[in-house]
Design a protein that fits this description.
- The protein is mostly beta strands.
- The strands form 3 sheets. The protein has a 6-stranded parallel beta sheet with strand order 1-3-6-9-12-15, with helices on one face. A 6-stranded parallel beta sheet has the order 2-4-7-10-13-16. Strands 5-8-11-14-17 form a 5-stranded parallel beta sheet.
- The longest helix is centred in the first third of the chain and has 8 residues.
Amino acid sequence: DPRWDPNAMLPTVHQVDAGDGTLQDAMNAADDGDIIELVADGGVYNTTASGSFKVEKTLTIRAAEGLAVKPVVRISKPDESSARVFAIYPGGNLTLIGLDVDGRAEDGGAAFAKNIIRSRDVSSEADSFHFYLKVDDCILHNSREATAKFHQWTIADSLIFTNTIFDESVKEGILTTEGSSKGGADV
């Protein structure tokens, strides 16, 4: 915050229009700590290139101020067997604000994403990593399993959901362990 540290760098705000790949391109181009602002009123931000939007740095993805309809974020590759809309990888932290995050490939279709948000699978405690997730004023819906799931040996320093609707999850809303005998998620 430049009020407290005049040498602090302000994050860059990347304004992104709806379309296939536009959100992933902005995520790839952003620097750690940047803000990605979705500007299309009710626009669909999807990717057909992979089974998830990979979060590998600290990012805020938010709706532009004043939109009448929340931007829709989804992946559109239903042949993926374990698709997640957002996958948090080592180094990744995620803040979502004002979005409709949809686990379906298309409006009215069946859910095919296993999870809306999930930490990356890690195979051992040696691969563990820390992350935070903050979700405000969002709709998270249509997942085949838990809406938000955090893999064993991942450490969620903060999980904060405010003013958020969970809808149409086949299993749990938030799953924070995959079995304590396997080193379940540490929150």
